[in-house]
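Hi W.,

Here's what went into the run:
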Amino acid sequence: MERFYTMWSYLVRRLLQAIFILFIITMLCFILTRLSSDPMAQYANKQGITAADREAIRKKLGLDRPMPVQYVRWLGLALQGDLGNSFFSKQPVLLMIKQRLPLTLILMGTAEIVIIIVSLALGLVAAIKQYSFTDNLITSISFIGFSMPIFFIALGCIMLFAVKFKQWGLPYLPTGADIWNPKDPVELIRHLILPVFCLVAIQTAGYSRFLRSSILEVLGLDYVRTARAKGLTERVTLYKHALRNAILPFITIIGLDIPFLLGGALVTESVFTWPGMGRLFWEYAQRGDYPVVLGVLLLTSSGVVFFTIIVDLLYTVVDPRIRLG
Amino acid sequence: MAINLDVVESPVSAVEFVRGESKAALTPSQLVWRRFRRHRMAVFGGIGAVLLLIFIIGGSIIFPESRANETDLVRRLAPPSSIHFFGTDSVGRDVFFRIIYGGQISLFIGVLAVLMSISLGTVIGGAAAYYGGWVDTILMRFTEAMLAIPSLFLLIVLAKFIGRNIGQVTIMGRTFSGSIGIVILVIGLTSWMYLARIVRANVLSLKELDYISASKALGSSDARIFFSHLVPNTLGAIIVSATLGLAGAILTEAYVSFLGLGVQQPTSTWGNMMQQAQSFLIRGAWWMWVFPSLFIIFIILCINLLGDGLRDAFDPRSSRHL
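Here's what came out:
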């Protein structure tokens, strides 16, 4: 019963904190985006628009009001689920996000699954064979991947697998610059291969290094020595005893990273012209279209804030030693 | 009764003691150096970084800056040769010399951005832990808010906010694009959050210790306690985070350049050289793209290896050296 109350008071406190954090985020983003570019700029040099017209548009968009009023109005509407309309495409922001989100989830979800599988395998092998040739090889390759800007490997892949393979008459992959139909599964998979490969190459390193060191840490603990001393096989010691504890922090960092998938991969999506959230953000940030920019920011950061609470709560279930504080 | 406390309290692990590896008690910094040396990859990283530094500094002493900005339209897009080691770019500038001078700017941006981010991280994290209460609440919620925004989104929004067209600045007879300052500011302001949390956690546990109370009783000011007692004791975390942060900052500079928000021409950085080369890659001018990329990857690799080794060296609990 006591545990039940602690959990509820903890949850309420965390939710209040989350609301405060989201308030800071929206205010920060609003100030930064609203002041950095003038949404009226697109009308400045247009033919047939007089100064009076411009003033009318300004009024209609609410840009003539003082800044705090604009913020409160935007926030009020956002709380009711209305993120406003894009200045540029004139569409509702929510609709634009709804169109882009599934494709981002497909790309990022696939990449994340591959990353988890690959880094599990690499981390495990590197830890078991610590300081062997295999370990050093895995470590070196993952450090090189970790040190590369993603556009380097992305452009390199396009040059090799799309441009050169086509020239050499080999089966080639699309660059993404063509027009394609995301509803066709074959085309979708063809277009997925390169961006997923690049994301995996860059991001596997962090996870596998992390898993390696947490396995090594657990392998040094007394209970593992006890298990070995009991005469358990190395296999049982490793998979039944060591791995179960070593994998807890690994699951936590994955859990904390998952909400960031909502934001997509801005650079990868841009290079491969993948119509996802990252590219949506980038395209409209360049135009100073702040309702779209704020909408994407609000969605991703609320995802992050609330998901963190869920991960923390789940962690107490998985590991009963952790108390809610 | 003279009990030799040195033997009991010397920070030598039992293993080292039994093996007879330690003849005398080592100071903490000697211990760090000793653990670091055993990390072969980290030593390799350190040597690589020093060599690259020698290349950049030596190169800029031997060759004048004018050679990096000299345009020669007849020899534009020339492949690597004995005259132009790394070929020439789209307006005939020598890629080799631009890498030397671009490296200077890239490293300069990296170092200043890291200095800014560790100062911010230390002061914000330290103040939050030291004062506690509402100061802690506000500072930490702000930190969490910054962390909840995907980093590239934050970077773009901030770059758009500060990024006005600043003209050129002349310092010590050399002309730089004013956008260098903006890039430093953008990277520094968006990378302090992790360190702030580490410093906060460290200071929270340190401030309960007796020597802090003693210092307070002696009448030390908050600033004195903070900078001469608390900060030195979290120095390990700060050094590690500064090293890894430097790699991160150089990488971020490349990303910022890729998005066209970076340092403007004619000042070269490795990042904007890569960005400029992209459109010529498809036309076969691979050298414009490959060389700056290799330099970026190599320096970041070296610094990351160095940082990884330092982290192990400063944190004896990590079991990699058992």
